[in-house]
Write a structure and sequence with these properties.
CATH class of the largest domain: Alpha Beta
Strand content: 25-35%
Number of strands: 8
Oligomer: single chain
Structural class: alpha+beta
Radius of gyration: 18 Å
Helix content: 25-40%
Length: 225
Amino acid sequence: MSGSTVLLPDLCTLRDLRTFVSRARVADPEGVVRLIGHGAVLAVLASPLHGSGAPTVLGMRAATLTRPSRVDATVPMAAMEALLVDPCSDHEGPIGLAVPADEITDVAWAGITPPRSGWELLGTVSRETLLRVARAGEAEVAAAVSPGTAPHEVQRLRARVWGRSLTDDPPGLPAGIAFAAHVLGFVTDPDTDADGPEATAHRTGAWSRLTTTRGHILARTGSLI
């Protein structure tokens, strides 16, 4: 079954998407990305955290397309990285990205689509808070896991650590949002990047969202798997 082709505006956009996919693959080496093309925008989603009681947390990076396209495909990250290779070094102008046909149907998180509208602004979350929670959680998981730890125990630990509340104000955001923002590079250290993006928190229904200039982190309470 054939796929379709979307037209990225330039090499910078292609490299930006490749960086996003590469970072997401660190958190989920055997994972997938979902590509949703609607009009002149391509949304690329990955899930650094999901399953076994953990909140379902998605990272989303959007790219403007040169021409409108309609695409909805779920692709293995390894295959996506291979597609996002640079063309010849002197290339200028738009770049065609061949999107394989969607043949993956057994990834639960890829079957849900976050809301586009209805978001209520809750407030802001400082970069210091996001990094502190992310690093503390990563250290807690690393300290408790050894080569002999059973996979279900690791999943249970991750669910407990990343299912905690991120902050009291605004309330209701899972700590997994901080983990995803950190691993995907959506939040930077104020000590080395004084002008880095701040984050705003939003909610609609069962969904929470953290937004920076680098992308969106979306979380849905409760596991889908």
